[in-house]
Write a structure and sequence with these properties.
about 270 residues; mainly alpha; 13 helices; about 70% helix
Length: about 270
């Protein structure tokens, strides 16, 4: 974790005890509707061909729907769906793949595709403005635009600064995590255990058949990542249960870290 990310995370915890906590919803909308679409565009231009990878994302869609069925009410259904299906595939995932000696290109392709699918699903099942038959996520549009313009990426070099700026601004998600934190979220409860079963057992199991045909180490690591902190911003933006999302992100990340650190040397040796 770089200094800026750490500073934002540590700043969020004390601010969350003050009126500054009210900044979390508008900051979330800024990330989801302004910052993420820029990153989505560049992710589309960077996407490399991994023919079987789209099949791995079927596992995420299945997990998303099954996790929703395990909870009652739109807010909890949406929260369970996004944290069960969408892991921290970039911030933790790619460094984990590097540490384990896996394929970074396969991990990056997985991360880009899973983010596209996830942002789209999060918007489609929004608990806000549910009267519309179809809800379009800006990230969905810009990602597809980026894929179309990928062959012309050299002509876009003059705009590359927007990618770097958006990447820095995306770190505000860690501030939102700190603002949303409550000490009670450190307690493991039945809801978190259910989410953990979907995220760390069902999703990797469903992903395994495709992973074995591509890059097993990289894809399985990415599928096993704890929930992404950007899920909290999505929860605020689309009206999901922010408490369930935040405690799942915190608890499952804290549980994943020691497990991975103990297994990383073994994974690298294979």
């Amino acid at each position: 974790m770089d200094a800026v990310s750490l500073a934002l995370l540590l700043l969020g915890f004390p601010l969350g005890r003050t009126r500054a906590k009210a900044l979390a919803p508008p900051l979330s909308k800024f990330l989801v509707y302004a910052v993420a679409p820029v990153l989505g565009f560049w992710a589309g231009t960077h996407l490399e061909s991994e023919p079987l990878l789209p099949l791995a994302l079927v596992a995420e869609v299945i997990t998303f729907y099954l996790a929703r069925k395990a909870f009652e009410g739109c807010e909890k259904k949406g929260a369970a769906g996004i944290v069960s299906a969408f892991g921290n595939t970039i911030f933790l995932g790619i460094p984990a793949v590097l540490a384990a000696g896996g394929s970074v290109s396969a991990a990056a392709a997985y991360a880009m595709l899973t983010t596209f699918v996830h942002y789209t699903l999060a918007a489609l099942y929004s608990c806000k403005g549910r009267g519309k038959l179809f809800k379009l996520q800006p990230f969905t549009v810009t990602f597809l635009l980026g894929v179309l313009l990928g062959p012309f990426s050299q002509q876009l070099e003059g705009l590359r600064w927007t990618e770097a700026l958006a990447a820095e601004l995306s770190k505000l998600g860690l501030l939102i995590l700190g603002l949303s934190f409550e000490f009670q979220y450190l307690r493991v409860d039945w809801e978190v255990l259910k989410v953990g079963a979907f995220k760390h057992l069902l999703l990797p199991a469903l992903t395994l058949p495709v992973a074995l045909l591509t890059e097993p180490k990289s894809i399985m690591l990415e599928a096993s990542m704890p929930p992404a902190f950007m899920n909290i911003a999505l929860a605020y933006a689309y009206g999901y249960d922010t408490k369930l999302v935040t405690k799942s992100v915190i608890t499952l990340t804290l549980a994943w870290l020691p497990a991975f650190l103990s297994l990383a040397p073994l994974l690298r040796a294979r």
